[in-house]
């Protein structure tokens, strides 16, 4: 099953949005495979955002993502990479559709609440950057026969 890396950014954690955001992926029907509250080191930030190294906003980006704890997650499901990007909304919150996470909660592009892998390659790279194999849990969802 496809996996993606999602992360509530420091602004989302400060704004108490961990539950709201995690709840959206649970209710959608995706499966949580791993999660942790953590601080991002300078090294990890530079590695994670390596593709933006030459951009004018790189310094601010690294400063922001290391400014406080983040909630890192791995979610699993069919086409979860693309579906999560849809649920997150456009990078720039003013372009993000209502009903998406950034459309509902984002205010500025530099603090846009959530990160999600943008391709299979990024998902693999980011999952191994943030999680050890032992931190990911492989399990089945029971049939919910007792819920009626
Ligand atoms: P991320 O999930 O953070 O990777 O965002 P997304 O993939 O939607 O957008 P990209 B293009 O990868 O942006 C990375 C981070 O850079 C910030 N940014 C981007 C700016 O601050 N100014 C800009 O002009 C652009 C294009 C937004 C993203 N993160 N944060 N925080
Ligand atoms: Mg990106």
Describe the structure.
Major role in the synthesis of nucleoside triphosphates other than ATP. The ATP gamma phosphate is transferred to the NDP beta phosphate via a ping-pong mechanism, using a phosphorylated active-site intermediate. It comes from Halobacillus kuroshimensis. The active site is at 115 (pros-phosphohistidine intermediate). One of its GO terms (molecular function) is nucleoside diphosphate kinase activity. It is a single chain. With 148 residues, the protein is α+β, with helices and mostly antiparallel strands. It is built from seven helices and four strands. It has helices spanning 10-14, 18-28, 42-48, 58-65, 80-88, 101-105, 120-130; strands spanning 3-8, 31-38, 70-76, 114-116. It has a four-stranded antiparallel β-sheet with strand order 2-3-1-4. The two termini are 28 Å apart. 32% of the residues are buried. The structure holds 3'-azido-3'-deoxy-thymidine-5'-alpha borano triphosphate (ABT) and magnesium ion. 3'-azido-3'-deoxy-thymidine-5'-alpha borano triphosphate (ABT) is lined by residues 9, 52, 57, 61, 64, 91, 109-112, 115-116, 118.
- Helix content bin: 25-40%
Ligands? 3'-azido-3'-deoxy-thymidine-5'-alpha borano triphosphate, magnesium ion
Supply Rg: 15 Å
Structural class: alpha+beta
Q: How are the strands of the biggest sheet laid out side by side? A: 2-3-1-4
Kindly state the mean pLDDT as a whole number? Answer: 96
Count of runs of 4 or more consecutive helical residues: 7
Spatial gap, N to C terminus: 28 Å
**Ranges with pLDDT <50 over ≥5 residues?**
none
Secondary-structure element series: EHHEHHEHHEH
Biggest pleated-sheet summary: 4 strands, antiparallel
Shape: globular
Give the strand tally. 4
């Amino acid at each position: 099953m496809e996996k993606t890396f999602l992360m509530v950014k420091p602004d989302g954690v400060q704004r108490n949005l961990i539950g709201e955001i995690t709840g959206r992926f649970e209710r959608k029907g995706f499966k949580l495979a791993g999660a942790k509250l953590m601080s991002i080191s300078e090294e990890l930030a530079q590695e994670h955002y390596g593709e933006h190294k030459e951009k004018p906003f790189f310094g601010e980006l690294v400063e922001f993502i290391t400014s406080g704890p983040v909630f890192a997650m791995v979610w699993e499901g069919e086409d979860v990479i693309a579906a999560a990007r849809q649920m997150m909304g456009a990078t720039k919150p003013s372009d993000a559709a209502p009903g998406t996470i950034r459309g509902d909660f984002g205010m500025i592009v530099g603090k846009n609440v959530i990160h999600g892998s943008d391709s299979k390659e990024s998902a693999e790279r980011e999952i191994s950057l943030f999680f050890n194999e032992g931190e990911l849990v492989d399990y089945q969802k029971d049939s919910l026969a007792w819920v009626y």
